[in-house]
Amino acid sequence: MNAVGTGAPLAERARAAIPGGVNSGQRSVPGITDLVVARAEGARFFDTEGRAYTDYHAAFGPQLLGHNDPDVSAAVAAVIREVDLCGVGVTPGEIELAERLIELVPSFEQVLLTSTGSEATFHALRLSRAVTGRRLVVKFQGCYHGWHDAVSLNVISAEDALNRPDPISAGILPEVLESTVVLPFNDAEAVRRLFADHGDQIAGVIVEPVPHNIGCVLPTDEFLITLREQTTQHGAILIFDEVITGFRHALGGWQEISGITPDLTTLGKAFANGFPLGAIGGRADLMQQFSSRPGGSAFFAGTYNGAPVVVAAALATLTKLTEQPVHEHTFRLGELARAGLREVFAELDLPAVVTGYGSIFVSYFMPGPAPRTYSDLLANRADLFVGYRRKLIERGIFELPLNLKRSHISYAHTESDIEQLIDGTRDAVRAALSETTELGAGASTMGGLVRES
Ligand SMILES: Cc1ncc(COP(=O)(O)O)c(C=O)c1O
């Protein structure tokens, strides 16, 4: 029983009934306290006060086609009239989706569906341990792979928490944290050294091939090649977590772009355009170890796996991604945005690195060159990164005001949206600069640093 009545403002009712008033720790954003979203369409969402926001947050990335894409919605509406979840056997949609994924993603010989990216990465790591009989897994500082214990460490760490286990949650057993080795991203030498010393204990290596949970840090060829070579040489499983890069950067993900084929790949976000879907796929000899095959030793389950509504959304999304110039459009707007933002920061004489890939962009407030590893990002001015985004929101443009978060362009955004983004950014940065200068800041504050998406 709570004391807030149904006549109270919605946000207040939310806080009374839901811890923090939102359904994810990642939606608990300082400065955004009373946002109740009423509607979303195309490149925009609308709050219950009638305000419109041009959306570059895109719910942390799924809506590559834009909100409420009409073709995806129509496919969902059609399937709802035919079949819902039966929890036995398989539906024709699941078969078609699996076959299409295998055609598109280079590492996929077989694939299983989950409801979220976290489940997919969980299963990938457990399978790695099941098939190798080894204990250790490896992740990289700055990469996020979901909320489960084995990967809940060293995402956005403060400087003094680098080079030691830095859990993002209380309640994780120390022995679990100790079983995950964290290395710096793009450090091929550190990978070689770890394998030389402990190669026979490493079950798997999981990596965001482009760590987008800290904006955008592009991998060197040497780094990805080394991961492939060392895991192969030492019998460990290489897992590409393509929950963000999959479909958004190319239909075959970063593995298609880089030419490096992992053993297992996890997917999520963009392939169902906002419907809850994840996938794990890869080498058939590994996938055959899941318990969906009788006798498979790695237990695999999930009441909602392959739910027809979500599968229909994915099939419609893949059809549109394949048949329409989605990548051409979003990549062109991405280039326009990055070029325009670079000009703005040059005009303002502000040290900034505008980077990204394709439809993703991010502006770090630090001198160049573009970051290659997490510790490079400690030079970013978090006060300005968050501050200008708060000012942008006042101007009806939504980039998430959390340090190091990336922004996304969808098929529904237009050139005129990007022009507004560039003009809005100029105004917002000016306004934020005048406030940080008034505060005598100038220096980097680490406020909001310990966050991940
Ligand atoms: C790279 C990556 N992997 C895994 C996940 C977890 O996915 P989900 O939030 O669907 O559980 C995320 C979520 O942001 C992600 O960015």
TrEMBL record:
Sections of the chain in a coiled coil: none
Keywords: Isomerase, Porphyrin biosynthesis, Pyridoxal phosphate
Pathway where this protein functions: Porphyrin-containing compound metabolism; protoporphyrin-IX biosynthesis; 5-aminolevulinate from L-glutamyl-tRNA(Glu): step 2/2
Enzyme Commission number(s) from the entry: 5.4.3.8
Necessary cofactors: pyridoxal 5'-phosphate
Pfam families reported in the protein's UniProt record: Aminotran_3 (PF00202)
InterPro entries xrefs: Aminotrans_3, Aminotrans_3_PPA_site, PyrdxlP-dep_Trfase, PyrdxlP-dep_Trfase_major, PyrdxlP-dep_Trfase_small
Highest taxon above the source species: Bacteria
TM ranges: none
Biological processes, Gene Ontology terms: porphyrin-containing compound biosynthetic process
Catalysed reactions, semicolon-separated: (S)-4-amino-5-oxopentanoate = 5-aminolevulinate
GO molecular function, one term: glutamate-1-semialdehyde 2,1-aminomutase activity
Membership in a protein family: Belongs to the class-III pyridoxal-phosphate-dependent aminotransferase family. HemL subfamily.
Name of the featured protein: glutamate-1-semialdehyde 2,1-aminomutase
Species: Microlunatus parietis
